[in-house]
Amino acid sequence: MNLAMRGRLGLMMFLEYFMWGAWYVTLNTWLSQSLHFSGTQLGLAAGVTTIGAMVSPFFVGLIADRLFATQGLLAVMHGMGALLLFLASLQANFVPFYVVILLYSLCYMPTMALTNSLAFRQMKEPQTEFGPIRVLGTLGWIVAGLLIGNLHIESTKMPMQIAAAASLLMAIYCLTLPHTPPLGKAAKVTVASIFPLEAVKLLGTRSMAIFAIASFLICIPLQFYYAFTNLFLNQLGVDNAASKMAGGQVSELLCMLLIPWFFRRLGVKYMLVAGMSAWALRYVLFAFGNPDSRVWMLWAGILLHGICYDFFFVTGQIYIDRKARPELRAAAQGLMTFLTYGAGMFVGSWLSGAVVESNTVKRFGYGDNFHDWHAIWLFPAVMSVVILLLFLVTFSDRSKPAVPGEAALTS
Asked: Which of 40, 289, 298, 315 is a good FRET partner for 8, with 20 to 30 A between their CA atoms?
């Protein structure tokens, strides 16, 4: 793949994740501080992407893989997304806002798989070419956080309108991408063709079943971070919170480089344990941190994101790739995405909203509510520890530790 194509695909990834990072990180800060939605409503709003994640495999399997050229479908979905994001930014009541942002998520979430698919179709050696291109998506998220934070617009509707503009730009740009026609036939599609029975049967083995259950469960407390960290930092008076949160994505990039080194020494089980432990530690740091003498705790909690995400999710993807037969790997990864980013985070969105609501003190006449963040963060901390201990004593992987990319991981 030539340098020009690398640049074109890299810009595609940059815009794809810039728009998500622009609106999602600060969503609940705007909804809470400007629109005064309840904690339960904040949790539901943050959970719209999880519904999109659950629908995405079916959409891609039913439509994208069989009927339409990928670049054209991306243009249409991002064009509709731009309109829906802008409409969402104009809403002041919860029900119409929720309906519009849910429709947007149903448009956006499938595009993550579609951009990956389009990129892979242009590559001769995806195992070496995809990483440097996909990392520009993380860079897009970082730039979005820095932009929103430095503009000091976190509690306004402007981040959503910036994301709408980026979505429109992406729609236009997609029309310039290489023609990528569907490979599948327009035949009858069933749930079994998207999640084949053989892939589901992988969960019948003890180690995979425990891994799947643990992955689903850990995504429940995980959603507390995504849904409420920006609101938490803003209410504590942390300046430029969105920019500071971008440090989590920087640590994600750095930890990605360390995964091979840790794989040699820890193996799958203890890489996963390290990831779970980092989630629990992060929430403890948030529970006891403050913007004054213990501001280092807040910074540490943010910078743990690399271990939280890479050590658990990237390691988990490698583990699935190793356990599944080559023809089932895509379906197995899709099934785990459904269980984690979909079902697990959906439950986490509801639960986090309920916990925040139960620890909210209404302050009538002050224009804002008081949240007991100490109690809020201790809840997912304890939950993460319980899941970690259950995983530690039940999971066993007898495979020899290996470095990602080596033969042991694809056998």
From this structure: 315
Confidence of residue 87 (pLDDT cuts 50, 70, 90): very high
Which range, of 57-66, 300-309, 314-323, averages the lowest pLDDT?
A: 57-66
Q: Evaluate whether 1-184 and 191-411 have a shared fold.
A: yes
Query: How many CA atoms lie less than 13 Å away from 19 in the CB half-sphere?
Result: 29
Span 82-87, average pLDDT = 98
CA distance 411 to 245: 38
Give the pLDDT band (50/70/90) at residue 312.
confident
What is d(CA 20, CA 24) in angstroms, rounded to the nearest whole number? 6
Beta strands in 185-262 (DSSP E): none
At residue 193, the pLDDT reads 58
Encode 257-295 in three state secondary structure: HHHHHHHHHHHHHHHHHHHHHHHHHHHHHHHHCCCCCCH
CATH homologous superfamily of 1-184 equals MFS general substrate transporter like domains (1.20.1250.20)
Highest-scoring range by mean pLDDT, 300-314, 316-330, 360-374: 300-314
| CATH number belonging to the domain at 191-411, selected among 3.30.43.10, 1.10.760.10, 1.20.1250.20, 3.90.550.10 | 1.20.1250.20
CB contact set of 98 (below 8 Å; sequence gap of 6+): 41, 44, 45, 48
Report helix, strand or coil for 318. helix
**Domain positions in the chain:** 1-184, 191-411
Residue tagged 């640590």 (tokens): 251
Alpha carbon of 213 to those of 65, 220, 330: distances in Å? 29, 11, 19
Per-residue pLDDT tens digits for 134-189: 889 989 999 999 999 999 999 999 999 999 999 999 999 999 999 988 765 555 55
> Helix 70-89 and helix 158-174: axis angle, to 10°?
160
The residue type at 93? N
